[in-house]
Design a protein that fits this description.
With about 220 residues, this protein is α+β, with helices and mostly antiparallel strands. The protein is built from five helices and twelve strands. It has helices at about 15-25, 50-65, 100-110, 130-135, 135-145, and strands at about 5-10, 35, 40, 70, 75-80, 85-90, 90-95, 115, 120-125, 150-155, 160-170, 180-195. The longest helix has 16 residues, at about 50-65. Mean pLDDT is about 85; it is low at about 175-180.
Length: about 220
């Protein structure tokens, strides 16, 4: 797989879920694509540092008693008219709850994608797709009301914690809700150099980021 993310515009008259399935079935190698701001994206193949760092962050949440910490599940955000707005597979997350019967029914209806309102904390670790994680995904998570977004930016060598999602009027930024006057963002931002603890809002632990230090 290319080291760069593969990005293709998606025809919105067809459910993006079905188009991603067709894309995955046509690929000569196993992939799981995402749909973000009307674009189908195949994330780059993770390297060892990326994978090991994600595991370390997951274990910190798990050790702190958050049993619904995990990775690998896909989540769907919807427009107000119920059309698919985004399909994302976070690098790691903490769910609000164990999947209920309603969540499982939702996943079955949407072919493996769970409702994004299950997420309490979401996290991404950049590969070569820095702009996707710092722009479109941030807007997606804020627009979906995910309370906390952790971003490990390996190129900048910093870690961010975004919290307190909000919508503000802004005619210069296209929105994911279909309303071009809405800009989704987080009101609060904490930034530390990699290697330092990253504070998160209560009740979550400060995250040790030393796993992302490189020689």
């Amino acid at each position: 797989m290319s080291a760069e993310p593969i990005m293709e515009p998606v025809m919105t008259q067809v459910d993006p879920i079905d188009l991603l399935i067709a894309f995955e079935e046509a690929s000569p190698m196993p992939i799981r694509a995402e749909y973000i701001e009307e674009t189908g994206i195949v994330p780059p193949q993770p390297d060892e540092e990326h994978s090991d760092g994600i595991a370390q962050l997951f274990l910190q949440f798990n050790d702190a008693g958050f049993r619904f910490a995990g990775f690998g599940m896909g989540f769907r955000a919807a427009h107000e008219d119920s059309r698919t707005a985004a399909l994302v597979i976070p690098d790691f997350y903490v769910r609000r709850r164990k999947a209920t019967e309603l969540d499982e029914a939702y996943s079955k209806t949407h072919k493996g994608w769970y409702p994004i309102d299950m997420l309490a904390v979401v996290g991404e670790v950049t590969s070569t797709n820095h702009e996707v994680d710092t722009g479109p995904k941030l807007r997606i998570y804020a627009g979906a009301g995910v309370p906390v977004y952790v971003l490990i930016h390996r190129k900048e060598k910093v870690a961010y914690c975004f919290s307190d999602p909000a919508a503000t009027e802004d005619t210069t930024v296209p929105a994911t809700t279909g309303d071009a006057t809405v800009k989704h963002r987080y009101r609060r931002e904490v930034k530390v150099d990699l290697g330092l603890p990253l504070p998160l809002p209560a009740p979550y632990p400060a995250l040790d980021t030393t796993a992302f230090l490189t020689d």
